[in-house]
User: What shape does this take?
Amino acid sequence: MSAMTNTAASTPAHNPPAALFWFRRDLRDDDNAGLCQALARYGRVFCVFVFDTDILDALPHRSDRRVEFIWKSVTELKAALERRGGGLRVLHGPARQRIPECAETLGVAAVFANRDYEPSALERDAQVAAALAKRGVGFHTCLDQVIFERQDLLTQAGRPYTVFTPYRNAWLRALGPERVSPCLAAYGHLVPDPCPMPSLKALGFEVTNLSALGIEPGMSGAQRTLDDFLPRMSRYHELRDYPSRRGGSGLSVHLRFGTLSIRHLVRLARAEDSPGARVWLNELVWREFYFSILANFPHVVGHAFKPEFESLAFDDNPDLFDAWRTGRTGYPIVDAAMQQLLQTGFMHNRLRMISASFLVKDLGIDWRWGERHFAEHLNDFDLAANNGGWQWSASTGCDAQPWFRIFNPTTQSQRFDPEGGFIRHYLPQLAAVPSRRIHAPWMLSPLEQQAAGCIIGRDYPAPVVDHGAARERTLRRYQREHLGSP
Assistant: This one.
């Protein structure tokens, strides 16, 4: 955090200096680093959240589950701050303008926020800092979203890590108790604020199926989701790859919007000595690794991490892309995954890898098309993780799978959804297809199709590509770039 001069000692006790804390990706009042810093350094602390129209206006749909999740989380946060004697001013408009205006209106000496690492957020924060500086107001950001940031961890050569395993080893070695200790606050300095909470409709958005999906926003939802996962954490390593089983934590959306603290999760994972807890901690480190890549190599936004793959010649085929995004490829595991995304805003992690590999290496379509589609629909969309995952699948990123390793969607389906339970849930037209054929329904005989009530080409599409032929084509595409051969 930026150094500050403590002016409280020279200010009359009846009129202590004030600060403004700006909530962003940290929608909780406990274990919040920036809020704790503001409360520790200033005698009065106002709180604000901005529904940023620079972000909202770019969304393609007015029924966005993420906006509803944020709105409900902010509503709960506002009530929690009021119970502590404070308040939350909820604004609507461009944050780059609203924050400096709010700081001037309230007469604060400083604005605090927790750091964000996305290029657009960094640009916004630079604009806010400059506008505040013209008003004589300081802008201070704190480490909260991750355990280690930017260049906290470097190789012996003094460079950021670009391979996960050495990064993870360095991360674990450097993880001392001070890194995960909770941030404790004395809330007596919070200032009440009578500002009303705008309705979702007033923000220009509609209620979605968030409640029907069982997704619980806010700090209370995060805690209930965590409580549900903890008894299963010891078996995480056994169950996490099977989409029809409750193997995941369900916490990714809460990490995305900060309704619970990453420090708390790391403490829990470290406290349980089980294979599942260790694998789950490994996934939390993957999250940090992709944050580090984005912060240190911002060119990954829109470009291949590996320059030799920047000029890969992908196919411009909107029809195939449309078949993929709507779940009409003829490969059930891919189509069920895409339907899960469209219907729920979630996709199981194993399925993210399978569907991404299929788009890039079976259909030959640019990974950036898929990255944008996921960004549009994922409840837990996070630029760093989404970009990192897509570049991993496309073999263009750091620590990518070898370009010559290509997922076979049929064998992946047989391995991770062996009885076809996940497929049947999202593709009911395949409900009566026998388990031995559900992974490749095009192998059904005409009589078997009639018996199952699923005629290929009518009730369910035939495969849009042959995996074997597509694999050979992809190998030639990557070989040209990797080896420079014709």
Notes: The CA atoms of residues 90 and 238 lie 43 Å apart. The chain has 21 helices and five strands.
